[in-house]
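User: Hi! I'm working on a homework problem where we have to compare a predicted structure to a textbook description. Could you give me the structure for the chain below?
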Amino acid sequence: MKETHVLKIARELGLAERQVEATGALLEDGATVPFIARYRKEATDSLDEVAITTIRDRLGKLVELDDRREAILESLEKQGHLTDELKDRVLAAESLPVLEDIYLPYRPKRRTRATIAREKGL
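Assistant: Happy to help. Predicted structure tokens:
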């Protein structure tokens, strides 16, 4: 779990960083939301199930965003489109839709049999 994720979630939800960090660590260890809410109150400072679920979901979305960001940067690098400005825009994207909108003009086009035939002049 990245420190930036902890800071972002704590700021968004108005929680202490230690609460978010402890909840994230318990979730990474495989603990369930009800287990954390009932038996790990001392670690999370008595967070309820709703807050723990919100933390779990937001962590998942941030990890998914990071994974997609890496894949997009790798694809842009392979295609030769990656510039410093484009890289900064991709790294600054706060949500998946914004990230996909940035990548849309550079996304490789689907090659069908028809497009391959047209390329061959048929």
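For your comparison, note the following. The CA atoms of residues 72 and 100 lie 9 Å apart. Residues 3-119 form a domain with the Arc Repressor Mutant, subunit A fold (CATH 1.10.10.650). Good luck with the assignment!
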